[in-house]
Design goal:
298 residues, mainly alpha, 16 helices
Length: 298
């Protein structure tokens, strides 16, 4: 289930900022003006700078990229329908992101943010289609790192907790936004209700929470070879403090993974014969892990 993101983690320095020694001075000034106006979203200024660059050096290697970006911002004033959102999304991913990276370097993401939000706005309220997961506002908001927008778009979908793609997005969005409690709760639900999807995400390193990612790698090395649905219980066993700040009703469902999670939570909160028997019944290997690690926690 890992999703390709066009949001740049590492980008090269802006090529346009390294003014070509072979440019004549008028073209160099026009190119610098073009980049400066794009950075502050001055569309009229960018149009003038593009015209100046065309007059002085129409064959410059960055002219096509600049032209695409200026055209895209010129279209911003036009309304965008839901039907047209897919074309705009494709244009962003396939053309405008590479153009902005080449022209603006590290500023590309911030400069393109209004274009991403325009597409997200056109998709606002659209039902989620698992066959076309990109065509949802949550995906688009994530591309410009608008995690609050992504969370709101996901939570507006009725039954979003039953959609593995949305649960994975929700977990990442909460984590990136700094809400570790909500992020771990979403990861737990994904493990219980869509273990294959959760495993794919975790294997791909999409968990931005380093301690949880480390726990996942340890989990994979267990001799018991448990399935992904057991990971939340193992995570709780290794980090008992989670029990006090994760939602009290987390794990209240009927799945075996949820029962194991509840059993671990109960034995951590009140160790005793009854709690241990419940953990033994839920997953004997978890009781063994608990007994092995118990002295270190005391």
């Amino acid at each position: 289930m890992p999703e390709h993101s066009t949001a740049p983690d590492r980008v090269e320095p802006p090529l346009a900022g390294q003014l070509d020694l072979f440019l004549n001075s008028d073209a160099a000034v026009a190119l610098a003006d073009l980049c400066a106006t794009l950075r502050v979203h001055d569309t009229a200024g960018a149009q003038r700078a593009l015209a100046a660059l065309a007059a002085h050096e129409p064959g410059h290697r960055l002219f096509p990229a600049a032209e695409r970006l200026v055209a895209a911002f010129t279209r911003m004033s036009a309304s965008l329908s839901r039907a047209g959102a897919e074309d705009e999304l494709n244009a962003l991913e396939q053309s405008l992101v590479p153009a902005a990276r080449g022209l603006l370097g590290r500023d590309a993401l911030e400069v393109l943010a209004p274009l991403w939000r325009r597409v997200a706005g056109a998709l606002a309220g659209a039902p989620f289609d698992a066959e076309h997961p990109r065509l949802h506002a949550s995906y688009v908001y994530a591309q410009c790192l608008d995690w609050a927008g992504a969370i709101a778009a996901i939570e507006a979908v009725p039954g979003h907790a039953s959609e593995p793609v949305l649960l994975g997005r929700l977990a990442e969005a909460h984590s990136r936004a700094g809400d570790r409690t909500a992020a771990i709760a979403a990861w737990c639900r994904l493990c219980w209700h869509a273990p294959d999807a959760a495993s794919e995400c975790l294997d791909a390193g999409e968990m931005p929470d380093a301690p949880v990612r480390e726990a996942w790698l340890e989990f994979l090395e267990l001799d018991a070879e448990p399935g992904t649905k057991w990971f939340p219980a193992y995570l709780l066993l290794g980090a008992p403090g989670l029990a006090s700040w994760l939602p009290a009703n987390l794990g209240d469902g009927p799945t075996s993974g949820e029962r194991a999670f509840r059993a671990v939570r109960d034995v951590l909160q009140a160790d005793g014969a009854e709690a241990r028997r419940a953990l033994q019944a839920a997953a004997p290997w978890l009781l063994e892990e608990y007994l092995k690690t118990r002295p270190a926690r005391r």
